[in-house]
Amino acid sequence: MKTIFLSHPFRETFPSYGQPDTSIEVEAVKSISCGDSCHTYTFKMNNHWGTHIDSPNHFYSDGKKLTDYDASFWEFDKAQIIDVDVSKRLVLEKDDFVGKVAKDTDILFVRSGYTEKRCEACYATENPGIHSEVGFYLRKNFPGLRVIAMDFISISSRTNREEGRKSHQAFLNPNGHGDPILIAEDVKISKNIQKISKVTILPLMIEQIDSAPCTIIGKVAFND
Fold it and tell me: Are the C-beta atoms of 170 and 182 separated by less than 8 Å?
């Protein structure tokens, strides 16, 4: 087993929902080349850029924000990967999940192969998504599942944004059946990973916001 990052680093340009080439506004406050004693920067970015996690507050004013969860919430030891086929339909349905998810799974990684397309425009503009019925199904049948993580830009497919809003609501509604399942988007799940065991998610902890970029670390086994 090897410990690796399951999140993408921010680079000069990167994809965001509907935008293949997004960039962070970075400004040097101090620079050694200008005679300062150290480097210091300010940066401005959207809280739904890069690998990030949506909390219930993203769609519900009375829903929890990331800072409302205990530190232990972000540790997982029953991780599971399921592989899905998005070649025929971009919006995954309940049938793509039935019979594949273990009862004790606490974080579910959905691998479509889109990680390999992150440098292509389609990653941001023609991404897969997950139907709202999947949220209802998982919340009803897997009470220990706390996070669903996917190797595409959003749970909301650009091909059906209205259904994407319903899907966010199905997973995040604080008054729905069982606890909300948080949504990790734009996650790095390469095709040569065979198994993920322990996982830690480290969101950027800012009290005022609904969701945030995060670093995800996992202990994985690779295919031979």
Answer: no
Q: Which domain holds residue 84?
A: 2-222
Mean pLDDT of the chain: 96
Total number of domains constituting the chain: 1
With CA atoms as reference, report the closest residue to 132 among 71, 85, 176.
Answer: 176
pLDDT bucket at 108, cuts 50 / 70 / 90: very high
Report the candidate in 23, 28, 3, 25 with the shortest Cα–Cα distance to residue 13: 23
Q: What is the CATH number of the domain that holds 61?
A: 3.50.30.50
CA angle 54-21-214, nearest 5°? 30
pTM of this structure:
0.96
Specify whether the CB–CB gap between 174 and 180 falls below 8 A: yes
